[in-house]
Amino acid sequence: MSESLERLVENLAIDGLTHFHHFRKAFPSEEVSKLLLRKNVYCYDYVTNHDKFQETSLPPKEAFYNRLKREDISEQDYRHELKVWDTFSMSNLGSYHDLYLLTDVVLLTDVFERFRNMTTDYYELHASHFYTAPGLAWQAALKMTGVNLELLTSPDMYNFFELGCRGGISMISKKYAKANNKYIDGYDDAKQNSYIMYYDANNLYGWAMSQPLPTGLMCWLDEDEIKSFNLQNISTDADKGYMLEVDLEYPHDLHDSHNSYPLAPSHKNVQDDELSSYSKFLYRDLYDGHRKRPNTTKLIPTLENKKNYITHYCNLQLYTNLGMKITKVHRILEFHQSPWLATYIQFNTSRRQEARNDF
């Protein structure tokens, strides 16, 4: 429930007061319920001591300025709080404070109860038995799929997988591009048509988690098995999968065509002598040599050859199909695999498609 209470209440209120059981017990009157069915505002920075609670009128609108968010409340919000004050015939700010807390608590209670009912219906799991949403999601996946995952107890195998995890590339490799698009202003009919396209992968994580994933029976291939290993003969949905540690050569004839987005990114601490002339110029121009360059490892796509590069066999198939060459195989870790998580992912995807709000 990584949303504000205001948003959560709005989502739950799509069906009116149907799901607000605790809220209705606290405020049986339908008129009052409709008045309070929202995230109310409070003068957090104004209340600096207990004496403020004895004030007999609602503080001015300026008192509701939120220094944390650096914003005032709207005129509409302030008029709403004035109406709340009058409706409940507030005797002082302390009474207003208590009502604010009560509404927050019962609204959040109903939101969580609705969430708890949903997890019970969908996964037969009680949300309050878990500390975090990821913990709940993991147990729901295991329960729904009935998979039996082998516990990885070998430190060597564990570290092998860890070294093969790199994250995602985030960069702007081409700083400027200009299209000659006949559908927009500035088109030059004397030049060849060109367009700038935006591409995005839908459901990237859902797709990846629906692919064959390791389940167990992990073992290292011996030297003879490595020698007879044929990477291209293994299908993406094979019963056995592989992680490989290899040396890769990046042929020079690929450098120009791959320059904007090189294959096989790696963690690298770029040294001063590896910086381009332009990067060195920027460093001198911006910092005048008075600031030491950070000694930080970054995930970088480069055209360099790779040594002891660990990756999944499907990635390696892609790299070699696009022209990289394997010059040496150091180790191969074999494991049984299946798309065991796909059922859980597809179930949640369908529930999300049926949802009437982002929550």
UniProtKB/TrEMBL annotation:
InterPro entries: DNA/RNA_pol_sf (IPR043502). SUPFAM superfamilies: DNA/RNA polymerases. This is DNA-directed DNA polymerase. It comes from Mytilus galloprovincialis (Mediterranean mussel). The lineage of its organism: Eukaryota, Metazoa, Spiralia, Lophotrochozoa, Mollusca.
